[in-house]
């Protein structure tokens, strides 16, 4: 079995989570080779074959060219799996590669199961197993599902080229907005999610944070709705936090949010939905309406 | 200008999901359906562009699924789309993302859409494949996970959302397909007069057999709840009792209560 792993670079550096691809290959006992559109400085610590295409020539985001580069490597390696991470790069490029290869794609794989692949569905509340028909199989892996592995060694480099021009023009990166409190240093965070109901209810969350001596965070929908500043957002596209206590109020627990807070020391979730995915990481799940439970908790703690 | 917006109807995610008789997808009994949240941003962006261009663009909505999906396109029509196509398919949930994309592309081919908006994923299946696969089938430029959109003179400039809150700016010519991320805009609530107007708008029904030309590349094997990791305490019952029990646990297990 052979896996062609598609690494990721940003600003000329290898993104650390690319090592999760080696973790996957190792877990499957698969031979591997990597494709990297990057620079020499970005080569992984790995003794296998790396097809290195020059990011100076092909850009870090030029999917029309990147898909052809991956195709060229597929033709040489003839892999069983073409493996991406389920990231902004992977979910953008993988379906294009699948279309080019006329190959099945399974997105956001968390495990192999029953002769197929297990993946989340229904906003992470449920799991489905699907079986691909045909080879190679294009996969995107859920972040964190396969532990990172640094194989070590010096790669055997192979040049990788593709013809033609891309139809999109990449104009550059824009740094993240960082305003407000640095939640990464907070020892206690009380975060508000959609279950808070409306903006007018937010003071209830702030009062609990105050009585606990903590800071206020937010899940993405609360920021998207304009109820709170983007700087308060916890999750993949916000801040990654690990306080001693994290209180998730009305947060269902999208994978992007969980990735940003699951390393907290102790997690309390308050949610009406007993099956909400936040329950997966919570030490205590209080099944209740936020607007009934939180004020009662605050009142008792304030005594 | 012609704009297409792809709309999926999905269950409310607070629902309790149970496997269907075959055990491969959810049973629809007792589920309430609504417009896929990501697609609401797609509809809104199309309507904003129509407004920007003085009402000239024609917005077509397309939804694949059983008759219930007409409710979803009606909402989009009330938000400001002009017409809708319902690709009637009682078994849409058995089609894989590639087949759904092929169905959409088979319709869109020859229609000459300048822009296609889709959500970046659906809340129920969440493959993030369909939009990109439609673009690939049509030979359109495509950018995913868009959180800012601008259009001027046949050129689209977007920001895509990357990890860590970083954004990447990308420019392309039409025809193009954009997959919309949460937060791209503020989807409007349909007003009552617009809901009434939407009732008179055209919904063209096409049987899926006319558009489906591809075999599935994925077979559904199983649908189930994730294995519980266990360890977590679940507190149910009266609020006052829950409060006392939680405070007890926090005193016992953490050092945060002084």
From TrEMBL, chain A:
Keyword Ribosomal protein tagged: no
Keywords from the UniProt entry: Electron transport, FAD, Flavoprotein, Transport
Top-rank taxon, per record: Bacteria
Keyword field contains Cytoplasm: no
Domain Electron transfer flavoprotein alpha/beta-subunit N-terminal as annotated: residue spans: 3-174
Entries under InterPro entries matching the protein: DHS-like_NAD/FAD-binding_dom, ETF_a/b_N, ETF_a/FixB, ETF_asu_C, ETF_asu_C_CS, Rossmann-like_a/b/a_fold
Family as reported in the entry's similarity comment: Belongs to the ETF alpha-subunit/FixB family.
Protein name: Electron transfer flavoprotein subunit alpha/FixB family protein
Species, as recorded: Geomonas propionica
TrEMBL record, chain B:
Positions of the Electron transfer flavoprotein alpha/beta-subunit N-terminal domain: 23-215
Keyword NAD annotated: no
SMART domains cross-referenced by the UniProt entry: ETF
Pfam family, one: ETF
Domain of life: Bacteria
InterPro entries documented for this protein: ETF_a/b_N, ETF_b, ETF_beta_N, Rossmann-like_a/b/a_fold
Keyword Electron transport annotated: yes
Keyword field: Electron transport, Transport
Assigned protein family: Belongs to the ETF beta-subunit/FixA family.
Protein name: Electron transfer flavoprotein subunit beta
Organism (species): Geomonas propionica
